[in-house]
Amino acid sequence: MNVADALTGEHGVFHLLVEQLDDAIERCETTAELHRAAAPLALSLLGHARIEEATLFTPLEARIGGAGPLHCLRDEHQTMERLIRALFRLSDLATTRAAVRDVLALTRRHLAREEQVLFEVARKALRDPDLQELGTAWARARGIALPG
Q1: What is the pLDDT of residue 148?
Q2: CA dist., res. 125 & res. 63, Å (int)
Q3: Could you give the C-alpha distances from 143 to 8, 28, 32, 77, 140, in angstroms and in order?
Q4: What is the value of pTM for the model shown?
Q5: What letters, b where the CB count within 10 A reaches 16 and e where it falls short, cover 122-131?
């Protein structure tokens, strides 16, 4: 399995979670309710960033260096983590709604950058056997048993 394809597929789940949370923002009547609505996306994004760093960013950095898109995307991972952690410390509903909107906006931009730029850079910079090996590492990290 090609790691860029695997991560693209994983992004499909994030797009769904982003839309579900966006739809829930105004329906939630308490901060606790909004925190519960945000938890699936938040936890998934934090885990995804760690796996993505290990299975794509670090190997790609060895090939192309850490500047450019990798630097920007790593910075966004850190910003996302900071915003998510801060979100769950908020107690005011209006402030929490604004924080959720900030997380959603960053998440949408970040996913688009990875899908439109990073994954294409990876497909060009890494050889197919390397992409396959990294895909196997991704599957292992996700607990997925691949055939063969």
Answers
A1: 72
A2: 7
A3: 17, 33, 31, 22, 5
A4: 0.94
A5: beeebeeebb
**Helix axis angle, 93-113 relative to 69-87, nearest 10°?**
160
Q: Where are the alpha helices (DSSP H) in the chain?
A: 3-24, 31-52, 58-64, 69-87, 93-113, 119-125, 128-142
| CA atoms 96, 109, 49, 3: torsion sign | positive
Using CA atoms in the order 106, 74, 146, 18, what is the torsion angle rounded to 10 degrees?
-10
d(CA 96, CA 98): 5
**66 and 129 Cβ atoms separated by less than 8 Å:** no
Among 144, 124, 106, 129, CA closest to 9:
144
Looking at every residue in the chain, the average pLDDT score rounds to 96
- Whole-angstrom CA distances from 48 to 11, 22, 97 are 9, 20, 23
